[in-house]
Amino acid sequence: MAIDQDLEELLIIGDSDLIIRQAQGKWETRDVKLIPYRHHVEDLSKRLESVEFRYISLFHNELVDALATLASMLPYPELDVQPWYHDIKRFLKTKEYPDEAIGDQRRTIRLLARGFFLSGEVLYKRTLDLSLLRCVDTEEVGRIMYEVHRGVCGPHINGYVLAKKIL
Hints:
By secondary structure, this protein is an alpha+beta fold. It is built from seven helices and five strands, in the order E-H-H-E-H-H-H-E-E-E-H-H. A three-stranded antiparallel beta sheet has the order 3-4-5, with helices on one face.
């Protein structure tokens, strides 16, 4: 939005010290899933004259919380649309890592993959009681939520029971 409005200076406030320091370039971004977002932020920052990232504690974050809620409603078409489990599924299928993954990131993917089970094209997460939770992408989540809300899967029930039913 800042670029669309031709802003030259931007102050970005966040309540995650880790994310702010990574965006500032003070700390390395190691999470493979966050690397594309960091690159996207860097690319957008180059298009502005001045960008400042500032940390604010949870105690003082009412404005940040409201802005984050608004931001979560906006589509981001330039970002990768792969599901959150893409790298884990790829590793289990082919034993290949993402091109940008190095050292610790590869180790993290290997360790995460131990907690998942691939059956054909369907990925499951193992729970402590050895149950399997099916991993779903954004499109399928929307369909599941729609069916549950409409009552296709049964009568309307309280929130706790409904959440258990979805899981």
